[in-house]
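User: Show me sequence and structure for the first protein, then do the same for the second.

Assistant: Starting with the first protein.
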Amino acid sequence: MKISRIGGVIAAASKKDAEPLLQIGTIPIIKRIVISFQQAGIFPIVVVTGAEEDEVKYQLSSYGVIFIPNENCEQPELIDSVKIGLKYLLGKCDRLVFTPVNVPMFTPVTLNSLLAARGDIVTPFCNGKGGHPIVLSEAVVPEIIAYSGSGGLKAAISSMADRRIFLPVNDPGIFISVRDCRQLEAHLAEHNRALLHPTVQLNLQRESVFFNTRIKLLLYLILDTHSVRSACDRMALSYGKAWDMLNKLEAETGYPIAERKHGGKRGGNTTLTPQGLQFLRTWQKLEDNIFQFTQKEFSVLFRDSGLFR
């Protein structure tokens, strides 16, 4: 089930180490990473939760991300959270981007450079240091998921050194940690300049909006989980609200989007109809086209003219 080319994983589970709500500037670091991912056209974005989980969901509820909990969140190994995210995205995307939440200051420019590079494992490299985010091809994901040796994620990736490339970037944000508050604050102005981007809120409406990013995510999760309730759990949406959204979408399109099946030994389930799946895929293609056009035109009209640098 591939709806998009590139998915993202943000590990924010450790109650001991992760600080997803640490505010740098006017927003928490988890939002900085989500914005950077979205600016690179990444969908879906999976946030592996644990630390301050309820507030993280509240902060990101309108950002169209998927929440998957790490049940062992008191002191988890980073690789465990990575595996949770990778397992979910396996088979859904051609490439995957991973970062821990505690390294929030890489720029969207760096991320786009990593995505443009060819390699099964692409790691950014600056001032003699490697950092995050790391881009993975779908081919290496099963090997990381299956890794059971010592040394965690670093050792898992090192075990595939012949498939890894280091991409030089001019971005110290790839290794600035939340533990270094002085460096975070010093890098803030530069990072905010890099975050500048046009935002297009693409909706469908007649008298009122009946399709937007949030409903798109609901359809995506129904397709994946075959359950409206499970979809709601993963996107912090109420069950009743989800059905209101689906019913309105079907009334406006004039055809069934979701197929409900009742009964059976395993209970009922819900999935997308063929028309619903076609609608979702076509909408994603429309979003991709508009995203690419908008980024290009913004660069030509604003950056190249010197109105923004």
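Switching to the second protein now.
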Amino acid sequence: MDLQVLRSFQAVAEGLTVTEAAAEARITQPALSRALRRLEDEVGAELLQRVGRVLRLTPAGRVFKEYVDATLDSYDRGRRAVAEVVDPDAGVVSLAFLHTLGTWLVPRLVTGFRQVFPQVRFELHQHEENGLVQHLLDATADLIITSGDPGHPLITWRRLLVEPLWLAVPTQHRLAQRRRVRLAEVAEEPFILLKPGYGLRSVTETLCRQAGFSPLVGFEGEEVHTLRGLVAAGLGVSLIPSSPDAAATPDFPIRYLRITDVRGARDIGIAWLGGRVLPPAPGRFIDHALDATASAPSGAA
């Protein structure tokens, strides 16, 4: 058994055909088929079973794949750690972050960091709040940038900034000429929300409860851009991040109102596994992110 066979087994288990996995490994399809059979002989169980025209994991294969994933991940991180010892100015930062932060905060931080460490590579992953925490726990990301402290005993979190949240209403809305509003004033109106599991959804529900009501769900989406479009269409109101000087456009005829009866903001922070010794590049990125946001208490999407 060697690492390439394990990688090919992993690839087939995750949906590639044997022909595609063989091409990735730069060997012939018959050679890979023989290698997978030898792997089954060594393990002592059938790992893959043909179902129609594709191979599927057997129960034994599903168990074995968990250990293969962990083995390959450990090996890859070991190679990476050695490479960073040899060249500490290089390395990789695996960073997962909220979708809403991919339009402004993450690009700024990555650009600033690479001006100092141009050889560092980034692996970027976008996810909803729950998925971010799992990235850390599964060791598929070094760092996450998220809203609020995840509150997990294994995770260390540091605040980067406070991001304002604004009540978005269509330009023809009864409150559109106001600059400030109490959130309670829209308690009876439909809200455009992100789906459950997204950080902004949780924050919105919390703020509405603090204002004395539960939001009436009008529509649910997966991106803030979609929320803006639905608000612009007059289908409801929404709490979303935005610049305080944001103006309505033909594509998005929206007014952004400051909330006065509850704290219209959310904390944005960076987190990592507290018990894990980070490679140099992710550790430096944490320092950079904290320094870069130290004098910028608020942000805009």
